[in-house]
Amino acid sequence: MLALVGGLQVAVGDPGFAEWLKKDTDARKQYVTPGAPTTNAAVSDSPPDRSEPSSGGAPKEAKPELGWLIMVYMAADNNLDPYALEDVLEMQKIGSSDQLKITVLMDRVDYAEWTEARRFLVRRPAEQGGRNSWDLALRTCAGLGEQNMGNPQTLTDFVNWSMENHRQPNTMLILWNHGGGWRSTDSTTPARRLNPLRVNRQRNTRGIAWDDTDGGDFLETREVRAALEPIPKLTVIGADACLMGMLEVAYELRDRAAYFIGSQDLEPGEGWPYERWLPALATKPALDAETLCREIVNTYTASYGKKPVTLSAVRLAAIPELAASVDLVACEVIEHLERDAASAMIGFEGLPWFPPASPAFVDLGAFLTRLQKGMPARLSAAAKTASEALSKALVVNSSPASLGGTGLSIYPGGGNDDADYRAGIIQLARDTRWDEMLREMGYHQRKTARAVLESGDPGRWAVLIGVSSYADPAIPALKYAAADVEVLRQVLIDHAGYRLENIIVLTNAEATVESVRSVLGTRLPRLVAEKDMVMIYFSGHGGAEPALRGDSGDGTEKYMMLADSKLDDMYGTALPMSELSRIFSRVRADKLLFAMDSCYAGAAAGGEGKGVLREGMKAVGLNDDYLAALTGSAGTVVMTASRASEVSMESPEFGMGIFTHYLCDGLRGKADADSDGLVSIMELYQHVNRHVPASAKRMGASQNPVLKGEISGSFPVAVVKQGEEGGK
Known about the structure:
globular, 6-stranded mixed beta sheet, 21 helices, 30 strands, alpha/beta, Rossmann fold
């Protein structure tokens, strides 16, 4: 049924559509029936056509002098689906107008209330009969069936449709999804620092825009470029995703837009606050691109208050100069290493890493600053030039001092992705000698480390604590905790360069609160020198009870449950985890690794879990804030067997804790992903993180290791001796 509304014939039930058409001449061209008088447009009341909306052959209007087109490629066919609708609701508060168009392509998970991909123009509900913009009853929304958001053609088609039907002189594409930089660690982790039960926007391997329905397909960084090559240059490309603020990503997109916005660190699941920055475009359609970039970065940071988040915007036209200057730095580093490798002392250790809990990328600006001090004059000058080029490229950078981000990260090598990086998958590695520099640095580091590890390093110390039997009958016995220690001790001697006399072992009755506190707090600090490395390992129950004060974060106090600990008197008989940070600060070692095969989630069914709770308590865990406190001093790294509220399992199949089994497995050489004969800390973490979840799943449990702290990914922790299995 048709009704006449303000000179326009529209379907009854959508009078706001006609009012909107009267105000928006560009939309009027698209949705008015061809051939009808412009003052009496016939709008059909038949079911809307779900094919490509067409302008019906009407001539396009000349581009207005003002205006923005915001295109949101919303790949929500994954665990970010709930946040997709929230963000569209934010966009609807502003809506589209004559000089601001907001288009969305949204694909959803297969268990949502609607599962197909929908492409729509974002309008305010008041303008469309109270309906949301994704409602198929609206002529501005089209159902497209299942779309593979990891297919470059899907992205190309969406941008083309948006620019042809809602053209504006300024264009911005937002890639909304999980992100992993050019590549990332093999993990999907809960949102850090904000809420351990909420997801963030990081995903495994590389790229962006994962689509779970289509086999986990995603857009590699090179595929994003390929998708945009047939399209006119954009004004801004933004990544509402994790870890995309990298030189590699910016270089890939250098001629596809004028500006790029991305985060060096993880983004919370909530992502960008669209309702905070879109009003600037609605009220000022002549807003220039750099001002818009600053508005997005500043409102993003402000929306999270004191929570540490990062976001930066760069001028893509300045990226080739930055890449060229980084290439010169790489050349000078290579020459320096070849000329005087023994005194080169070049590395990434102690610099800001992203994400801090699972280090994969290093801050570029911090590395360049390091090279300006104590290096040969030519190398220092090249680093200074590169730092200046980075400053020229940056429009705005927001990063708290605790994270230390200067705007762009870069791949530091030393992990599972080296071969792909060198193979030219990414253009920065193809066009510069950064990858050759990483190879040269790795060669000299491995050469030095192998000599030390094979001869036995007097500067490596270990304290291994395992408790299977407890004096308190209320604490259930564990099957393998003490045995875990004996296996690990032999692995450290055979594979990690530790001398027998440098390993202190405390198991069962020996591991009392008094003895553990004395060894860690008194004996170890007296033995260890500043340049040494220390490994502290604990296998046993973790304990938790309600905190009497409110400064523990989650209302609980956590403990290492030792041989003489009592369940009803944890404070008096167990070692508080909060005390460990003070103990760590007493140890002068440059590097300290604390590995903990324990948890605070309570014992699992069958008694395999490593956690005990006071009666009436729910599962708790070491969340990100808690781990951050433990790693407060530089060079301290914590590797835990499980995430907050997960159970750390013992496996009858292995006769060990699952985490410790794969820890030892990796140290023996299985973690040597690049087959260089050495195992780095990052390789070791990636190995346990790859295998532990699958083994726990076979036992009906969820267990995901966590790494927290600052450490160079290239630092070797074990050597693979000839004739032993290693590599991929």
